[in-house]
Amino acid sequence: MPKNKVVSLEEAISHVKSGMSVAIGGFLSQGEPRTLIRGLLETDATDLTIYACTGGFKDQGIVELVVAGKVRKLVASHIGTTPAIVKAFHEGTLEVLLTPQGTLAEQMRCGGAGIGGFLTPTGVGTVVAEGKQHIELDGVTYLLEKSVCTDVALVRAHAGDAWGNLRYRGTARNYNSICATCAEYVIAEVEFLYNPGEIDPESVHTQGIYVDAVVRSDMSYCGKPLSCD
Amino acid sequence: MQDIKNIIAERAGAELKDGEVINLGIGLPTLVANYVPEGVDVVIHTENGAVGVGPAPAPYCGDPDRANAGGQPITLGPGGSYFDACTSFAMIRGGHVDATFLGTLQVDGDGNIASYEIPGKLVAGMGGAMDLLVGARTVYVVTDHCSKDGKTKLVAHCTFPLTGAGEADAIITERALFRHYPDRGFVLEEVARGYTLDDIAAATEMKYTVSDAVKMEAYGPGKDE
How far apart are CA B138 and CA A114, in angstroms? Predict the structure, then answer.
């Protein structure tokens, strides 16, 4: 029988130590692992480097880690929806590396897939290209981008089982399934926990072999029903 | 009277071709979905992981797991589906998106687009825009002609960090429509009601030529309407 990976939030999050790199899933509020983020807020871990698509939305999500002073550097594609992150960047208390969304996703995917780097045309002719090798193939100029692996990944899934199999829902998938492959220690929060053997093998998006710890989501953090604001 | 955003969105909607896969940037470009012409079906892709985006849900019926790139709630139309970020950007970068519509801070005569940062002031980040500019077959810049301080966005040379170099194929504002041609650069093809060629020239720094077949009063309400 595969190992039972369901643990408490505290036990899982204790694996994040100061100075570590952390890949965090989510796009704005969608699929953001807020139970894990808020668990991390309660620890002493600091000086973190975070790789994520965005910083959350308004004052919720990854931005809370920044406001708490736990983040040294954020690698993300968009920070415009979290004013506190922009403020910290302008004040010099947070280092930010803006990375095109497709590039960052592919960096993590390659990191988890054992591919050292890849060629993309995205960013040629912009500041993103500075300092990077340019390679021309068949008349097209590409940037050589390196892959990314992190110490820990925090992801959120809609459903999972004790063996770490995960299934995502709607647009909450986004970066979660990719972050789940590129870290040494992967923690997944799940809203619904299947009994062992009950999850349909055809519907598994992230195989349990990638996941080290499963935590049940605190459902009060799943976001309010959206109005059109 | 129709507001500026909707004037631009409606004219942009008229560009849509049947069967196209399109991506609409956050803000003004999302309004283009309201102006799909009669008899034209397009498939809407959203970078955060859905294709076949359908109508907005009823107010307060939004699902937090179903939203677009701006965080607005969505529903899927028939045939729609969800996928991860790598798949999303493989679709974009791999040339499977026919047209992308995005706003901008600046655009210049070489088709350079600067849309994500005013150094020292505004830092939004490029999000998926850099990928969209290189991947989409046709790039439409949809924007008000001038920013809130009255300065033109159609500048001689972009001074803000570029989102893409030489990627703009068309510019649609509430005053004019320009199309980019490889041998000629930007050509002014349409002027909105209530504006003259001199009005456009006075509000536009970027280099362009006027089409021999330029359409005056091509779209939009007049200034007095």
Answer: 34
Measured distance CA(B20)–CA(B99) in Å, rounded: 7
- Residue A108 in 3-state DSSP? helix
Asked if residue B206 is part of any domain, the answer here is yes
Q: What is the pLDDT at residue A226?
A: 46
Q: How far apart are CA A106 and CA A83, in angstroms?
A: 27
Q: How far is B121 from B149, CA to CA, in rounded Å?
A: 14
CATH code: domain of residue B31 = 3.40.1080.10
Helices first, then strands: H and E counts in chain A: 6, 11
Interatomic CA distance for residues B171 and B180, integer angstroms: 8
The type of residue at A45 is A
- Topology (CATH level 3) of domain A9-117+150-218: Glutaconate Coenzyme A-transferase (3.40.1080)
Instruction: Work out the average pLDDT over A179-198.
Output: 95
Establish if B222 belongs to a structural domain: no
Predicted-complex ipTM score? 0.95
Contacts of B64 in chain A (CB under 8 A): 29-30, 172, 222-226
Choice among B47, B167, B174, B190 that is catalytic? B47
Q: How far apart are CA B54 and CA B47, in angstroms?
A: 15
Range of the domain at B32: 4-56+64-215
Annotated catalytic residue B225: no
| A118 contact residues in B (CB cutoff 8 A) | none
pLDDT of residue A228: 38
**φ, ψ (nearest 5 deg) of residue B93:** -70, -30
Domain-embedded: residue B81: yes
Mean pLDDT of A93-116: 98
- List, for residues A97-107, the tens digit of each pLDDT value: 999 999 999 99
**B chain contacts of residue A127, beta-carbon cutoff 8 Å:** 161-162
Q: What is the pTM of this model?
A: 0.96
Return the residue in B75, B122, B131 with the most chain A beta carbons within 10 A, the one to mutate for interface testing: B131
Percent of chain B with pLDDT over 90: 93
Place of tokens 């969304």: A101
Residue B127 lies in a domain: yes
Contact between B66 and A170 using a beta-carbon 8 Å cutoff = yes
Name the band, by pLDDT with cuts 50, 70 and 90, for residue A219: confident
DSSP line for B199-213: HHHHT--S--EEEEE
